[in-house]
Structure formats: C-alpha cells, structure tokens
Amino acid sequence: MSTSRADPLTALGAEVADCTICPRLVAWRKDVAAVPPTRFRGHDYWARGVPGFGDDDPWMIIVGLAPAAHGANRTGRMFTGDRSADFLVAALHRAGLASQPTSDSRDDGLSLIGCRMTAVVRCAPPDNRPTPDERDRCTPFLAREIQLCPNATVVLALGAFAWNGVLRVLGSPRPKPRFGHGAEAHVAGRLLLGTYHPSQQNTFTGRLTPDMLDAVLQRARTIKTA
C-alpha cells in the first residue's frame, strides 16, 4: 500500500462522509436510519456519505449508482450488507479480486485485491433515483477518486447510470459510447467496461447471471494483462 496515495484517498473519503450539500439526500438518509425495517432494528446506521472502498492503488475501479438505503447507507461501506453486495463480492472473490465471498459489515475482514468500489452518488437516494442536480453535485468526488488512482486502466460501470457518470467525468468521445452488458469504450486512456447492475431486479430475473458477471470480470483481467 502506498502511503502517499492512500492519504489523499482517505482525506477524500472524509470529505464524502461529511458532505451535506444535497438537502433532500441528507434528510432521506437520516429518515431511513430513524425508521429501519424490522430486520435492521437496533442497527447503528452510518447515514452519511459513503466513501470508496478497496485497494489504494487499483488497476480497476468499479462504479455503481449510489449506496443502498439499507446496504451501504447502513453499514458505511460500498456494496456491503445487501443482496447487490452479495452478488458482486461473490463474483469478485471468484475472480481473485476479493479476500472473501461476502460483504456484510465494515469490520468483516473483507479486502479487495487490485480493485476499488465507488459510486457516482454517495448518499442513498429515494427510490434509487438521484436528481440531475444531485448527480452533478456529487460527480466531482468521483472525478477526484479516479484521478487519485492513475494505474486504474479499467473502469467497470455497473449499469447505465454509472456508465454515463463515468463518461461525464472522463469526457465522452463522439459519438457517445452506448451502454450495454459487455460494452467497451476507450476513454481518456482508460478502458470503460459495462455490465448490468447487480440489483435484485436484474439478478432475480436472470437478466444478470453469475456467469455473465464472471465473463466481464475475466475480460477486465485480460485487458490488465494485455
């Protein structure tokens, strides 16, 4: 781990956690924590902006939409404590990119190997739908995080919202690359890969299967070693 690189990422994470620039999202993340579902009653919700998590010098950055209300908004760690996390981290473990196949809490011992998980928007939005203004206010955090990871030659976008968010940060070529599962685009010296988001809506219906996500992660590894 590079101390010089880790320190700026840690400082960025602290800024994310302390951010209160979007009143609607601040109110929502607190409201969710105040009235949790039965299965999470008694849990101490994070209810703040969620920093990126993973390797401090990654070759791949994984970008999602936003923290889940009872996932990362509860646990304080990206893709932790919900079904999307279960699906994604299991795939990362199969690919040799995670130390274990589960992501349950900040103190569960999980470490990521060569990759880092983050999101376009850092607070849980109502109905998983941030407004354009909320997206734009949060995008500079993503821009800085990617900039602080100069060796991340691969950026994996989980869903169309993340794909478009990364293009906003890196600068979209013309014609604009279209999102799709397995889509690829060379942008600003990095390779942008697309996959369907590991949401329950996609994984329960079979729109995204473990084999499909495994194939995209294998493609990312191929690019890394090319």
Summarize the structure.
The protein has 226 residues and is of the alpha/beta class. The chain contains eight helices and six strands. It is globular and about 50 Å long.
What does this structure look like?
The chain is of the alpha/beta class and 226 residues long. The protein has one domain: 3-Layer(aba) Sandwich (Uracil-DNA Glycosylase, subunit E). The protein is 41% helix and 12% strand. It is built from 8 helices and 6 strands, in the order H-H-E-E-H-H-E-H-E-H-E-E-H-H. It has helices at 3-18, 23-34, 72-75, 83-94, 132-147, 160-170, 200-205, 210-225; strands spanning 53-54, 60-64, 115-119, 154-158, 184-187, 190-195. The protein has a 6-stranded mixed β-sheet, with helices on both faces. Strand 5 and strand 6 (190-195) form a beta hairpin. Helix 4 packs across helix 8.
Give keywords.
226 residues; alpha/beta; Uracil-DNA Glycosylase, subunit E; 6-stranded mixed β-sheet; 6 strands; 12% strand; globular
Which secondary structure elements does this structure contain, and how are they paired or packed?
Elements: H1 3-18, H2 23-34, E1 53-54, E2 60-64, H3 72-75, H4 83-94, E3 115-119, H5 132-147, E4 154-158, H6 160-170, E5 184-187, E6 190-195, H7 200-205, H8 210-225
Parallel strand pairs: 2-3, 2-4, 4-6
Antiparallel strand pairs: 1-3, 5-6
Helix pairs in contact: 4-8, 5-6
